[in-house]
Design brief:
The chain is built from 14 helices and 14 strands. The protein is an alpha/beta fold. The strands form three sheets. Strands 5-4-6-7-1-8-14-13-9-10 form a ten-stranded mixed beta sheet, with helices on both faces. Helix 3 packs across helix 7. The radius of gyration is 20 Å and the shape is globular.
Length: about 425
């Protein structure tokens, strides 16, 4: 349960988003409220040789808005995305990192996760190796590829000497980054943490791999309708890219700064399915355990929860298992909760998904508006909850959960509440 001590309560004061729906938080939120799909034919490589030819790509990204031109050439796209959303979050929070004192720099940290890391430079250099031999591999290959580099670059760009690391837990990554930031702050290791997830994996290697697993939608003739959680005709997820960042601060620090406060990070719940490297536990025990632990950590009862942003990737098995887990945890109250599957609009951003969906959950609390779930023509007979279909719903959201589940059986649920001093 969140402590009443303002030094141990953690709040969200800044947000940054780069998504298939838009390159700012405002554009992302507007796209969600409009029920917009970010999907389309793949443009980043020739997809004629893969089964799934669609993706939710980031559009019109200009790295030079955030990064020195010389440095752009030395950074994989996933790191560029991370630096962009970091700057957005700091600006949103009214935190000028150039004006920080040395002591403040020691007490601000970064946890920026990714599911795949520098997959674009990996593809490029494997082709380079094949064509030109090992001696021609770029000297920047390793630092551009390794997953922790986004977190390191953020610290370098803003001279932040606090705790700094990368989380890699597949599609649970974004939620785990928030978790690690929260726990580090509650343990007194930092006064503020920039946390989030980033992914730039729309390339032939990643798309080809997921396609070979038959995990992705092949509704190639109708991309905008391909991501359809809970629909009886869903056939897999739509790969996506982007990044999300949240600035977390102790309540004490936020109050001293007079910072805007979006919501409070009330609790986290973590578990593992211990079942299969890719498929979820058919009983949904791990998913249910994560939600129960998050509520317990936040001091919430099931009837306190107004909204859940589901993991809901549009896979035939996963959406049913998660829905059943919600019923098992919440009982009759499950039908009173406004549920959203924002992946119906953004696609699945892999390691960035949790961060982007945490932002949507926080804004649902802050704005009193729940995002819709689109592309549901006919509900699966085993999916019968209140999925907030087609249109956003205006309601007070005082407490909300957001789920993120990853290959390897990783489950992490975050609990956010409206800020109350």
């Amino acid at each position: 349960m969140a402590s009443s001590d303002s030094a141990h309560r953690v709040v969200v004061t800044g947000l940054g988003a780069l998504t298939p729906l838009g390159n700012t938080v405002a554009d992302y939120w507007e796209g969600l409220m409009d029920g917009k799909s970010g999907a389309g034919p793949i443009t980043k490589f020739d997809a004629s040789d893969v089964r799934s030819k669609i993706a939710c790509e980031v559009k019109d990204f200009d790295a030079s808005q955030y990064i020195d031109e010389k440095q752009i050439e030395r950074q994989d796209l996933f790191s560029q995305y991370a630096l962009a959303v970091t700057q957005q979050a700091f600006d949103d929070a009214g935190l000028d990192t150039e004006a920080l004192t040395p002591d403040e720099r020691d007490d601000i940290g970064v946890v920026m996760g990714t599911g795949v890391g520098g997959s674009n430079i990996f593809v490029d250099e494997v082709l380079n190796l094949e064509e030109n031999g090992a001696r021609r591999i770029s000297p920047f290959f390793v630092p551009m590829m390794i997953s922790n580099m986004a977190a390191g670059l953020i610290a370098m760009e803003h001279t932040l000497r606090g705790p700094n690391h990368c989380v890699v837990s597949a599609c649970a990554t974004g939620n785990d980054a928030v978790t690690d930031g929260l726990l580090l702050m509650q343990q007194g290791h930092a006064d503020a943490m920039l946390v989030g997830g980033t992914e730039a994996s729309v390339n032939e290697l990643c798309v080809g791999g997921f396609s070979s697993m038959r995990a992705m939608s092949t509704r190639n003739d109708d991309p905008t309708a391909a991501s359809r959680p809970f629909d009886k005709d869903r056939d897999g997820f739509v790969i996506a890219e982007g990044a999300g960042a949240l600035l977390l601060e102790t309540l004490e620090r936020a109050q001293e700064r007079g910072a805007p406060i979006y919501a409070e990070v009330a609790g986290v719940g973590k578990s593992n399915d211990a079942h299969h490297y890719a498929a979820p536990d058919p009983d949904g025990r791990g998913a249910a355990l994560a939600m129960e632990k998050a509520m317990d950590d936040a001091g919430l009862s099931p009837t306190d929860v107004d909204h859940i942003n589901m993991h809901a990737t549009s896979t035939p098995v996963g959406d049913v298992i998660e829905s059943d887990a919600v019923k098992n945890v919440f009982g009759d109250h499950a039908y009173d909760i406004n549920i959203s599957a924002t992946k119906s609009m953004t696609g699945h951003m892999l390691g960035a998904a949790g961060a982007a969906e945490a932002i949507a959950t926080i804004l649902a609390i802050h704005e009193g508006r729940v995002p819709p779930t689109i592309n549901v023509d006919e509900l699966d007979e085993d999916c019968d909850l209140n999925y907030t279909l087609d249109e956003p719903v205006d309601r007070d959201v005082n407490a909300a959960l957001t789920n993120a589940f990853g290959f390897g059986g990783h489950n992490t649920t975050l609990a956010f509440t409206s800020y109350d001093d």
